[in-house]
Design brief:
globular, 4 helices, alpha+beta, 34% helix
């Protein structure tokens, strides 16, 4: 009985990924990642980091980087990318600073120098 409930829970999560989180009518947007079109959700964390910084020097340092988190289905992306690898997002190069696999989705932290 527990195995059946666990399987139903996992199927529900996978359904939510496709039907809600990556749905273009909800949160999903189509982007080109490393030359392949995929539906992803982007989360710009730059504003949050700026608000958390206290001194003027820290703010200037934060402004020189563009940081975001990309959420993509493991099924769409494929093998989990490695930290330190470069990723092309809509023709712009970003460095992967973190990647976490969470129930069929990758949460990929990206950063690029604005300079």
């Amino acid at each position: 009985m527990i195995i059946l409930k666990d399987q139903m829970f996992k199927e529900g999560i996978l359904s939510d990924i496709e039907n809600v989180f990556l749905n273009s009518e909800e949160f999903g947007e189509e982007h080109v990642i490393d030359g392949r079109k995929m539906t992803v959700t982007l989360d710009g964390i730059e504003r949050l980091r700026k608000e958390q910084l206290q001194s003027k020097n820290q703010v200037n340092e934060a402004l020189s980087y563009h940081r975001l988190i990309l959420y993509v289905s493991r099924e769409d992306y494929g093998r989990m990318p490695q930290v330190g690898k470069m990723m092309q997002l809509d023709g712009i190069s970003f460095k992967i600073t973190d990647c976490i696999h969470e129930d069929g989705m990758y949460s990929i932290s990206l950063e690029r120098h604005k300079g």
